[in-house]
Design a protein that fits this description.
eleven-stranded mixed β-sheet, 591 residues, Rossmann fold, 18 strands, 4 domains, 32% helix, six-stranded antiparallel beta barrel, alpha/beta, Elongation Factor Tu (Ef-tu), domain 3
Length: 591
């Protein structure tokens, strides 16, 4: 039976409408603590004989109080759930609605714990309630992962730190779950310590033949639309090059020119190896059979494009050993997706070092392989795929971005949970993110968002009473978040807990704003910077002297390097200003 002496009084119910009610705040409301002020976002209880209805204030007003006697204000509330006075358990939804005159009181600390303390062990601790910092906020990890999640927030609100917190807690709670993080700004390399493998262009091996047809075309044409005539040629010869690799095995491949193999059952997208030299040989042979000079130019340009990307050291992660062959798909997937994990269940792929023209294709390949491996393994090895700056790869505007990447992320969002592939989206511009993909995330962490379009999209993604919470999204403080969805007991305003110093994200491209003591910034310093700047288009492994390395020589090959050396740009008196010693090293024969 309800005993009013146990609770701190707030007022009484003055109207009820569906899942909402209005409460008259009485003049003698016993609210002394600053945290117990009757204001938006606060939780209160509507008492009845056998239940306590949990209500959240969404609006405060003085309009109409002259008609309600001793009330000083009117609060509009959403009815979210109820605590049984008999069992002492909380459940979402309302079975017994309030009536006019029911007393409204402050929820006690024990009642808040009843709501937010999970009944099982399948949860992670992410922070504390804004209403009562002594109450720990938990997330049901099974619901959060199985039905995807998203972290939304403007720059500078603690979004990256929150992502580090969530992923570290997930790794602790799910040590056997593999996690793959697309790190757009190279921020997370140190956040997960020895539990993560950090990949970048220097240590990644992603053979070109793992790229499907659309992805390979994107690479060859530098992110621009392909020339239809050249794309048609590629579509014809790639299946034949794949058949040739398997047909001739390790034998004499010169027979390709004498007797062109048939494509057989291979398609442009069949993930089997082929050699780049075979591909070029097939194009060259077809070009030689043409009599029309205007038609031959398309073949010639296509060969030039392929050789250009092949000889660009920035693409070494794709084309290293491009003419050696070997089916390394199992090794690549095992390395990328940590199978076996060997104590490192997480992969952090740093994207900032990749050529801008190829980033979309790389993301597409990784997303697609993550989904396909889950599909064909029947979800035997669950994985969480986390996409930072997701709006860049799954834009709401279909005319921008790379279509295959959007398609790959969309497949994970729509079907991934059936095959053990879960999705985590992080973005500062939810309005620019494909709304269909965002709608598949059933647990949302909304941090401060000032843009009206972002708020509107977020509001459309919320299906329950939590929508009224979004009215004060623009006023959230740093590390404050509105969390709602399947992973939480109730829509909640909370503060993420502090993250240890060694887990704080930090961009590896951070620039110091003050000069080191005694540091000189003279013409020699400028020349060194320019040398590294220009070298960024030739080789990233040796930033201090990118033009002179054995690995560079091996990757570029004899003829392209000779053309570079003979160029006026590399003469000792050229504007590049190479020292004569470095120039002489470049002139030496390749080993």
């Amino acid at each position: 039976m309800f005993d009013s002496t146990k609770y701190t009084s707030l007022g009484r119910v003055v109207s009820v409408r569906g899942s909402q009610a209005r409460i008259g705040i009485t003049a003698n409301a016993q609210l002394t603590s600053a945290n117990l002020r009757a204001t938006v976002g606060q939780f209160f209880g509507i008492r009845s004989a056998n239940t306590t209805i949990v209500a959240m204030i969404t609006e405060m007003t003085r309009e109409g109080i002259d008609k309600i006697g001793d009330c000083t204000a009117i609060a509009s509330v959403d009815l979210l759930g109820e605590i049984s006075q008999i069992t002492g358990k909380f459940q979402r939804g309302i079975t017994v609605y309030p009536v006019i005159g029911d007393p409204v009181d402050v929820l006690t600390a024990n009642e808040l714990r009843t709501i937010y303390t999970p009944s099982g062990t399948d949860h992670i601790d992410i922070g504390a309630l804004q209403q009562d910092s002594s109450i720990t906020a938990h997330v049901n990890i099974e619901e959060m992962l199985n039905k995807h999640f998203a972290v939304l927030g403007s720059t500078g609100v603690g979004k990256s730190t929150s992502v580090s917190l969530l992923l570290n807690e997930i790794l602790v709670a799910r040590p056997n779950l593999r996690v793959f993080l697309l790190d757009v700004h190279n921020e997370y390399g140190r956040c997960f310590g020895s539990r993560s493998l950090v990949l970048n262009p220097r240590n990644l091996k992603l053979p070109f033949w793992l790229f499907n047809f659309e992805e390979f075309v994107d690479v060859v044409f530098g992110g621009r639309p392909g020339v239809p005539e050249e794309v048609e040629v590629l579509s014809e010869v790639i299946p034949i090059a794949k058949a040739a690799y398997l047909q001739y095995g390790n034998g004499d491949r010169s027979s390709i020119k004498r007797n062109e193999p048939k494509a057989g059952s291979f398609t442009q997208d069949t993930p089997v190896p082929y050699r780049l030299v075979d591909l070029i040989s097939l194009i060259d042979e077809r070009m030689g059979k043409l009599e029309n000079r205007s038609t031959r130019i398309h073949y010639h340009k296509l060969i030039s494009r392929i050789e250009t990307v092949r000889n660009d050291p920035r693409y070494g992660f794709m084309f290293e050993n491009a003419n050696v062959g070997g089916d390394s798909m199992a090794d690549v997937i095992s390395h990328l997706f940590r199978l076996p994990a060997n104590g490192m269940p997480m992969t952090v792929m740093q994207l900032a070092g990749f050529p801008a023209d190829v980033v979309d294709s790389v993301v597409s390949v990784v997303c697609r392989m993550a989904f396909d491996f889950g599909l064909w393994s029947d979800g035997a090895s669950p994985m969480l795929f986390v996409c930072e700056e997701a709006h860049r790869y799954a834009s709401a505007d279909r005319s921008i971005g790379f279509g295959p990447t959007r398609k790959a992320i969309s497949r994970i969002a729509k079907e991934g949970r059936k095959y053990g592939v879960y999705l985590g989206l992080i973005t500062q511009r939810p309005a620019e993110l494909d709304a269909t993909i965002l709608s598949q995330c059933n647990t949302l962490f909304a941090m401060r968002l000032a843009n009206d379009r972002d708020q509107a999209l977020l509001r459309s993604a919320v299906s329950d009473a939590a929508a009224n919470l979004l009215s004060f999204v623009p006023s959230l403080g740093t590390r404050e978040v509105l969390a709602f969805g399947e992973g939480l007991a109730l829509p909640t305003r909370l503060r993420f807990k502090e993250v240890p110093q060694h887990q704080l994200p930090r961009s590896e491209a951070t620039i110091a704003t003050t000069l080191a003591s005694g540091a000189k910034r003279d013409i020699h310093f400028v020349a060194t910077v320019l040398d590294r700047w220009r070298g960024s288009t030739t080789h990233r492994d040796a930033p201090n002297d990118p033009l002179v390395t054995d690995r560079f020589a091996e990757r570029v090959g004899d003829r392209p390097l000779q053309r570079l050396v003979d160029s006026p740009m590399l003469q000792p008196t050229s504007p590049l200003g190479l020292e004569s010693e470095r120039y002489s090293l470049l002139k030496k024969p390749l080993r």
